[in-house]
Amino acid sequence: MRYDILTIFPEFFDSPFEGGILKKAVERGVIEINTHDIRSYATDKHRSVDDKPYGGGSGMVFKPEPLGKAIQAAKLGGVKSLVILTTPQGEVLTDKIVRELTGYDQLVIICGRYEGVDERVRKLHVDREISVGDYILSGGEYAACAIVDAVSRYVPGVLGNETSPYDDSFNNYLLEHQQYTRPEEYEGLGVPGILLSGNHGEIERWKRRESIERTYLRRPELLDRADLSVDDSIYLGELKKGHTNKFKLYIALVHYPVYNKDFKVITTAFTNLDVHDISRAARTYGVKGFYLIHPIEEQRSLVARVLRHWKEGPGRAHNPSRHEALELVRITNTLDEAMDRIEAIEGMRPKTVATDAGIRANTTGYAELKETMSSGDAPYLIIFGTGSGIAEEVISQSDFVLKPVHGQTSYNHLSVRSAAAIILDRLLRQ
Length: 430
Hints:
By secondary structure, the protein is an alpha/beta fold. It is built from 16 helices and 17 strands. It has three domains: 2-165, 3-Layer(aba) Sandwich (Alpha/beta knot); 172-181 and 202-243, tRNA(m1g37)methyltransferase, domain 2 (Trp Operon Repressor, Chain A); 249-428, 3-Layer(aba) Sandwich (Alpha/beta knot). The strands form five sheets. It has a six-stranded parallel beta sheet with strand order 14-13-10-16-15-17, with helices on both faces. The two termini are 38 Å apart.
């Protein structure tokens, strides 16, 4: 594997590649690392490689001529090569991408800097844009080091044990299991007995389960792409039973005040499907309570009879799982009454999150809300509306307004049952 790194600071790389595994790999001729000073391809007396951006704005932009010439000079003919631009706008580097990059004979890596490169360079010369994370570095040199190191680990002959990278974290989208070495006891802590047993089959099973558990607790989003066996999936289900949802999340379905299609405030009726489907979604995602809000006594009595059928009557024996979901349902007269009940349970008043399909300013995204919910001990109440949506008087008094659910089209007319399930999945999925 040959790396050609284009930079305005070639001296940056004097140290990173002069020690450890990479130095040995270079000495053995397994990999080759070359640096190229982009300024060498500038034509003016000041060796300028950047200029002010058209249209104004802060910072400078890499000029296309010297960078284009540097790329053309570094790129070898007759080999399978790839030109990479390091940029925060690129796809985030993953183990999957690293393995893909090992399929090339040469990687030409452009160290991004300033406000970026002239867009024409991207279009004419760049094959792939890569970021090493959602943060800003002072230059792409750091990212180039990460790419070279990560890719080289998969190049045959670089590591003493060529199976090592396949056992590390992120292989098959699982984090690596715990590791122990001598002594057997350290400051009162011992090594798990299974690792001392000599039973290699049980040791491998322990390692696999520890890897799954560590991934579930630390990076649960990786499990979506992990290759899990039936036994793995059963064990994951057992893990979920033992780890309760860390969020204190409640939901409410409001039937007044809501709008009709003419945006007049009305009271809507309970629907059986809303109660059943939203309660099942709530139970699936670990919601602590589901409040049905209705001001009319007859409607509250009606839904109470339905709930008794499933929780105490013939429905409980007929469908026990439905009973389990409907145990979350509480019926209240007003939204304030639901908030009072939550405050009595949690010891503090819940933060309210309104949902609305309309376009409005100052809305909160799903990732942002999830981070906010996990940053403290406050309970949260997500408010869903029936009819054509919650009335403005409720939305204006809420602590947050969640961004509308959008798909791949401009169509935006989901049922409240569908919207509730999607929102809970975005906020609480593991």
